[in-house]
Structure formats: structure tokens, C-alpha cells
Amino acid sequence: MLNRKIEIFIKIVEYGNITKAAKALYTSQPAISNALSNLESELNVKLFFRDKKNGILLTEVGQKIFKLAKQMENTNNRIYQTAYKENNLFE
Questions:
Q1: Which residues contact 72 (CB under 8 A, 6 or more apart)?
Q2: Residue 73 has what pLDDT?
């Protein structure tokens, strides 16, 4: 249920690197970069600063959106856990 672009955004933040996030998601780096660009366009905000020395860093709004995205991810997980528990009770 979690939006794929949000999932990709979370992984980029967690790995601090687009290439590492792509490997973790078993997809290509260009596909990850494209999804990130699409998310930034959709939201009309810049989520990261690209810095040659430090890699990618969250912007202020990126930090806020990451916090909300993690809450969404946690809620998503709880929804599936609840459904799983319900299904196992009645099998």
C-alpha cells in the first residue's frame, strides 16, 4: 500500500546514497533517480541537496517529509500485521 516513490525516498535517506538504495531495492540507479525526480516534481519541492563532499543531504522540507514518510511506513506495517493476526486467528 505504501507509494513506491515514498518507499524509494525512505531507502535513499536510510542508505544515504542513491546507488546503495537501488541495490537494496533490486533496481537500477537510473530508475531510483527518476523516481526521486518524479517525487520532487509531484511535491514541487527539493528533497535533497547534492554535495560532492558529503553526498546527498536532506533539505529542511526533506527532513519533515522523511519523518512523515516513516510514520506512513510504520502505519502500513501495522495494517499488514493486524490483518495477518486476524487471518491466523480464523484459519
A1: 2, 6
A2: 94
